[in-house]
Specification:
Helix content is about 50%, strand content about 15%.
Length: about 140
């Protein structure tokens, strides 16, 4: 098996595709390259670990994407979504519901960091830590 050079977005997309049955995506986010790559893999007919093609459902908002995942998880389907840290904040109400129902979903979060502005780094990481902290309480 050979090696392939790729960026982190493609690596996440390829691995998550193999473990997913439904992907709820909202393509207008900084996390769009991950969602778009999953969509391309599905359109090419690539199969996941269960021998199926992933069903990609494109929604009109971040809330719609996480609601799709929530519904799929309630039906017993392995589902995921892709977002950026700002979109993750819009997903908090559904994330609380999923946590309360103990549904095993995965949300791939792309955190955009600007290393030249230290304040920006702290703001971005604080958003993710805030969500994780609330979910653990």
């Amino acid at each position: 098996m050979g090696y392939k050079t790729m960026d982190a977005n493609e690596a996440v997309s390829r691995v998550s595709y193999k473990f997913t049955e439904i992907a709820g995506i909202y393509p207008i986010t900084p996390a769009s390259p991950m969602a778009e790559k999953v969509d391309v893999l599905a359109s090419k007919g690539e199969i996941n670990f269960w021998g199926n093609k992933v069903k990609v459902i494109e929604m009109e908002s971040e809330k719609g994407a996480i609601a799709t995942v929530h519904g799929a998880l309630q039906a017993g389907v392995l589902a995921t979504t892709y977002t950026a840290s700002q979109g993750l904040l819009l997903m908090i109400p559904s994330i609380y519901k999923m946590a309360g129902e103990m549904l095993p979903g995965v949300i791939h979060v792309r955190i955009v960091l600007v290393f030249l502005v230290i304040i920006k780094i702290y703001m971005q990481l604080d958003k993710l830590v805030l969500v994780c902290f609330h979910l653990l309480q």
